[in-house]
Hints:
Blueprint: H1 5-17, H2 20-27, H3 31-45, E1 50-52, E2 57-59, H4 61-90, E3 94-99, H5 107-118, E4 123-128, H6 131-139, E5 145-149, E6 157-172, E7 183-184, E8 193-196, H7 201-212, E9 221-223, H8 226-234, E10 239-243, E11 255-261, E12 266-274, H9 281-292
Parallel strand pairs: 3-4, 3-5, 7-11, 8-9, 8-10
Antiparallel strand pairs: 1-2, 5-12, 6-10, 6-11, 6-12
Helix pairs in contact: 1-2, 1-3, 1-4, 2-3, 5-9
Amino acid sequence: MKIDFDGVQAFVAIAELGGFNKAARELHITQTALTRRIQKLEAYLGVRLLDRTTRAVELTVVGRDFLPQARSIVQEMTSAVERLKDMSQHGRGNLTVACIPTMASHVLPGIIREYARRHPRNQVRLLDGTSDQVRTAVLHGKAELGIALAGESQPELIETALFSDPLVFVCRTPHPLQERKTLSWNDMRGIELVRVSGLVATRVVMDYQLARHNVRLDAKYEVDHHATAVNLVAAGVGAAILPASTIREGDRPGIRKIPLTGPVVKRRVVLLRSRRGSLSPAAEAFYELVRSTPVKV
């Protein structure tokens, strides 16, 4: 059923203000336009709502009966429109972001803190997973935004480059290499290493680049998650090759992070969104904040 909102709004304004002149001024339209709205509404309903004379306007019996419902329609519609305008202007609402776990170590929390400061009424839900899982979540609408590693381009997704994340050597002091300012990959031969599983995108990037430069490393330990590797290193179990964003210098007492060269191996972190449809105001605000926030690794 089609509801003639303009006509209902005009009827309520006339009933509450007591005349066409005041109602027309309130609605910022001419009296002629106001009259047409009422005539159209009455024609649609098939009943007369107002009795008009040269001196006064009175509600008919049907008009008096209809007024409470009409007033409710106008109030609800006005409130709904104001809420939408508020969401649009202030980026209000809730959103879901899918991200790779390393982003949740210290990069993403800082962004979320700033987002919460700007939009304290919004709720943010995080889905962490592999880069493939992040892409799937955005593609299937489970998350409006995703933060993942650059991979094979997909036509359904828009990828925005965020930063390059170099791999670094992470060790616990004391360690024979702890005083070095940089390390080459060959310097790590014979070192007890913890490496992440071959199913993790970081490992894929590392193995590809090392194969190109004919560098081979053997690891004594293998784990599925970067956080597990950090915990093992912190406990004195080997050293690890990890993305720089995984840990900041000073986050863990006694842990050193040393840049790797020859070659420098970087993974590229990207921001994902679907090409289908537009973002919600809350997601748009988060998207712009992520894009504009410099990342230090």
